[in-house]
Design brief:
Blueprint: H1 2-18, H2 26-37, H3 41-51, H4 56-79, H5 87-130
Helix pairs in contact: 1-2, 1-3, 1-5, 3-4, 4-5
Length: 131
């Protein structure tokens, strides 16, 4: 979900930079969407960081979320796949995963806020262009 919100934010940023919403082109949009969908979480965060002047706390929250997500996706269950068969160990692993998700969730909320704000900006600029 975090990746989707960042993707929405990146699409909105592109629309604001290029004014592509004034003359929509399905092929151009599709290529951009495929490119953004193919970004890793880290690359999406770096791209957004280059385009936005993010406050340090926002950048830190995204950085911590990236570490937590990478820990879960690349280490926690892969490293402990056989341990999942043991009920006691399985509960410990699930607790570790929950701790990681508690770090990821605030970043998701922040990314959602950024995406909504940027989408509203696109709508506002589009409405101004029509008048």
């Amino acid at each position: 979900m975090l990746e989707m919100e960042l993707g929405t934010a990146l699409l909105a940023l592109d629309a604001l930079e290029t004014n592509s919403f004034l003359a929509p082109n399905a092929d151009t949009y599709q290529r951009l969407r495929v490119e953004i969908d193919g970004l890793t979480l880290g690359k999406a965060l770096r791209r957004m960081g280059k385009k936005l002047n993010m406050a340090e706390d926002l950048e830190a929250a995204f950085g911590e979320a990236l570490k937590a997500r990478n820990f879960v996706a690349h280490h926690l269950f892969k490293r402990n796949s056989l341990a999942m068969l043991d009920e006691g160990t399985r509960m410990e692993l699930l607790e570790e995963a929950l701790e990681a998700f508690e770090v990821i969730h605030p970043a998701y909320s922040l990314a959602q806020d950024v995406a909504v704000h940027l989408t509203h900006q696109v709508l506002q600029v589009a409405n101004q262009a029509r008048t």
